[in-house]
Design brief:
This protein is mainly alpha-helical. Helix content is 69%, strand content 0%. The chain starts with a helix and ends with a helix.
């Protein structure tokens, strides 16, 4: 069971992310509240699983349309929202590739995750509108946020 300090930090991150989004139009970050109760080891496993899943979604997203494209974007929105609470201080344990820069520059890190949610939301809107050009551009936008985060905040193995 995580310590009260660990849980309090995770909840602070949720509040900060939601507050940040109050300025973004039609963007909502709603992480799963159960994630705050995970141990640091479980958080590492969960965030690694999410990132692998997101990579798979992005690789196949260009071939999707209609309801499948909307569902893919929805899944990315959920995953990026959940990532906002899966990096509390003290969670760089085990085989985590998270760099200390995440906690040293947490506002920048969280802003990238907000950008990812924003890009995935644009992807969803384009898919709903049937706008293939905007949809493909949004996929690139999502991928760009992944690359930006990995360049700055992930240990290069």
């Amino acid at each position: 069971m995580p310590s009260n300090r660990f849980t309090a930090f995770a909840l602070t991150i949720v509040v900060a992310a939601v507050a940040t989004l109050s300025f973004a139009q039609d963007i909502t970050i709603t992480p799963d509240p159960a994630l705050a109760a995970l141990s640091p080891e479980e958080m590492v496993a969960k965030r690694q699983a999410i990132m692998k899943e997101d990579g798979g979604i992005l690789k196949g997203a260009g071939g999707l349309s209609g309801a499948d494209a909307v569902a893919a974007a929805d899944h990315l929105i959920t995953n990026f929202s959940n990532l906002t609470v899966l990096f509390p201080e003290g969670s760089a344990v085990g085989d985590s590739e998270a760099l200390p820069a995440i906690w040293e520059n947490n506002a920048e890190f969280q802003a990238i995750l907000v950008s990812a949610v924003t890009a995935a939301t644009a992807m969803k809107a384009a898919a709903e509108a049937g706008d293939a050009t905007a949809y493909m551009a949004a996929i690139k936008g999502v991928g760009g946020t992944c690359g930006q985060c990995h360049q700055t905040f992930r240990h290069k193995s």
